[in-house]
Specification:
The chain has about 220 residues and is of the alpha/beta class. The protein has 9 helices and 8 strands. It has a 6-stranded parallel beta sheet, with helices on both faces. Strands 2-3 form a two-stranded antiparallel sheet.
Length: about 220
């Protein structure tokens, strides 16, 4: 029995554990550059992140005046190959994350990941950033064949991690809806790729920095 209200805390990946927009931007710009389109600034790509690589590229193409589905299918493998080869060039953990993970793990709380990013990118990214040791389960976007906000990936994460009282931490409505459907509380990180005002995404609580996570779950009263 830990001092915390939860046996297991799960995390989304992009925009929650990690700032990944730099590498995603580079991959999009590489793909669209092959057909002569102008590159996007990272701030613009940030607004396209959160629903998967296909949607991210579709949004970038639409903003460039290109909405041909066949073009999307042709460029997507180029984006994937570039991203796979440069998955951790600019990506990094958010401030305070490692200290929070260390404290939670030290208190006996199990930690896990549930992301819509496919395993081909998720597992190498976590390894390259030396985070794999913290997580007893990692569920990617192709692990179950379903994506958040469907609760199936989150359910698979809980089962793989050994069950128990679970909290999920994310940055979008995909995360809060999946958690709600599974009947577990959720925390929204306001610094991620939020698809709306953080306080309006349906989470149980909001944090602005990972320094706030451990005190929040230690004194959980939601």
């Amino acid at each position: 029995m830990t001092e915390f209200a939860f046996d297991l805390i799960g995390f989304d990946l992009d925009g929650t554990l990690l700032e990944t927009c730099g590498d995603l931007t580079a991959a999009v710009n590489h793909a669209i550059g092959t057909i002569g389109l102008a590159p996007f600034a990272e701030a613009e790509i940030r607004t396209y992140v959160g629903k998967g690589a296909r949607v991210m590229l579709r949004r970038a193409l639409a903003a460039s005046g290109q909405e041909d589905p066949a073009l999307l299918e042709r460029l997507l493998p180029l984006l994937f190959d570039h991203y796979e080869a440069h998955v951790a060039v600019h990506s990094h953990p958010y401030p305070g994350l490692i200290d929070a993970l260390e404290e939670l793990r030290g208190a006996g709380v199990r930690l896990a990941v549930c992301t819509n990013k496919i395993e081909r990118f998720t597992l190498p990214l976590i390894e390259k950033l030396n985070l794999a040791e913290y997580f007893c389960a990692v569920i990617g976007g192709d692990t179950t064949g379903l994506l958040k906000p469907d609760p199936a990936p989150l359910r698979a994460m809980v089962e793989k991690a050994g069950g128990g009282r679970c909290l999920f931490v994310g940055d979008s409505s995909n995360d809060t809806l999946a958690a709600a459907a599974l009947g577990v509380p959720s925390v929204v990180v306001s610094f991620g790729y939020c698809d709306g005002p953080p306080a309006e995404l349906g989470g149980t609580a909001v944090i602005d920095h990972f320094d706030e996570l451990v005190p929040l779950v230690r004194n959980w009263n939601h």
